[in-house]
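Entry:
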Amino acid sequence: MSPVPDPDRDSPSDFGPLGFQLVLLRRMADHQPGLVEDALRELGVDRSGMREANRRWQAMLHSPRRRGAGARYRSVLGPPETVGERRIGDLTFEALTWPVPLWPDLRFEVLAAPGGAIWNEWLVRAPGASGPDLRTAGDLLPWSCTVDEVARAFAPARPMEGTAPTRWQLAFTTPEGDRVAEFTWGLFQRLL
């Protein structure tokens, strides 16, 4: 009988929560290579493991037999921790969240429109977890805050298109002046 895999420590040949965290890190490595190296050490994976996880994720996304995004996340991350509704303007979305062991105070959130199309997928603060106190540009530290937290702290903020899928930019004003922040998977990476 084969051992039961640990969902938080899947091997690179299994694609589960560990593989998914490596996919998140792969896109973040462009802006925060030092933090990514630290995270890889914490996860016990090297850069080649991260690249392989990203290759497998891309293969899942582009497979002719690919699953819908909601089913894909459930197959990789298991049942969602929470399922609820979120209204944005006139639209109601199904909001699904999963824990991300690398960032215990965050959740990976998927917003699905009626019919199952994914409208948004990113990291958000976990319910009950306290976020950073954001008052100045100096408070914006890499990986410390989410898009929503920065938008609320420096309202009014203007969303902007990012440089790639899974990247967002946000324009806002701090006491020091106008700023643009870049986020990957919803997590702050850097000021531009």
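Residues 1-13 have pLDDT under 50 and may be disordered.
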